[in-house]
Amino acid sequence: MVENRPFLTLLSHLIMIAGVAIVALPVWIAFVISTMDATDLLGGVAPLWPGDQFLENYATILFQGEQASSAPPVLLMMTNSLIMALGIAIGKIVISIISAYAIVYFRFPFRMFFFWMIFMTLMLPVEVRIMPTFKVIADLNMLNSYAGLTIPLIASATATFLFRQFFLTVPEELLEAARIDGAGPVKFFIDILLPLSRTNIAALFVILFIYGWNQYLWPLIVTTEDSYYTVVMGVQRMVAVPDADPIWHYVMTTALLGMLPPALVVLFMQKLFVKGLVEQEK
User: Fold this and answer.
1) Which residues, 6 or more positions from 279, have their beta carbon under 8 angstroms from its beta carbon?
2) Which of 5, 57, 147, 197 has the fewest other C-beta atoms within 10 Å?
3) If you ran DSSP here, which 8-state letter would residue 190 be given?
4) Continuous segment of H or E residues that includes residue 71
């Protein structure tokens, strides 16, 4: 039984409050700066309370973009980031769960050899194979396209390994019962394995969505048109303004807007995400 120690309880709460303050303070300062005018920041000191330019700044950056760096509207960049993140997350999950299902439930020559070949690709992230991958995408005329942004990143050895480990824990009795009921491989996969994998899929979706949303290097290489810029590229472009100082209230506005979709995904899928991680540990 855990003893009731008021001092330790108070200390643990103080540590949690300090941790929240450390994380939340930079976000609050960014929000405050995003509500200011450029003249309010000339002194070099960031205020602690919001200004009166909230609606103007957010409307400008969402629908018009930032003129000094020629950045496109943030709404367009967020749409591109959303398409890329969803494509990567869904593509990785679909390919990985089908691959894991084939490896666990089908017997074919060199089955484990192919599995370890997939697993070895962990040593070859996109940064290592950037040049040959770019060459293939360029030869296929997929530059400046959503397919070029997503397809090279949808293969995932980690997700395949996690689904395989989960499928190995599924009792054999379920497979035997499905065979007795006349269920084929596709029906067994759709009606039994997919519902059992719901929490694992949710946990992986959160991780892979954030992975896809935060991509910077690959979109920077395969896109040359502003209409395919992602929000991460937009923030970097606003900061690296040639021959001028960054317009920080627009930079902070873009950064905060770029934080919203991943935060909302984590918030709404928190229970499934935690449950999926706990079950995966088992």
Assistant:
1) 166, 199, 200
2) 5
3) I
4) none
Q: Work out the angle at residue 160's Cα, subtended by the Cα atoms of residues 158 and 161, and round it to the nearest 5 degrees.
A: 65
Q: Is 218 inside a domain boundary? A: yes
Residue range of the domain that includes 213: 67-281
Which residue, chain included where needed, has tokens 């920077």?
A: 220
CATH number at residue 170: 1.10.3720.10
Residue 71's beta-bridge partner residues?
A: 66
Query: What CA–CA distance (Å, rounded) separates 191 from 113?
Result: 29
In a domain, 40, yes or no: no
- Report if residue 45 sits inside a domain: no
Please state, in angstroms and rounded to a whole number, the distance separating the CA atoms of residues 223 and 253: 23
68 in helix, strand or coil?
Answer: coil
Percent of the chain whose pLDDT exceeds 70 = 92
Cβ burial, residue 222 (10 Å; 0-12/13-18/19+): buried
Asked if the structure places residue 34 within a domain, the reply is: no
**Burial class of residue 163 (count of CB atoms within 10 Å of its CB; 0-12, 13-18, 19+):** buried
Output the CA–CA distances (angstroms, integers) from residue 266 to 32, 212, 257, 269, in the order listed.
Answer: 24, 14, 15, 5
**How many domains does the chain divide into?**
1
**Pick from 38, 76, 31: which is nearest to 54 by CA?**
31
Residue 282: the pLDDT is: 46
Distances (CA, A) of 252 to 144, 179, 210, 221, 271: 27, 58, 19, 24, 30
Look-up of token digits 């946990």? 203
Residue labelled with tokens 């937009």: 234
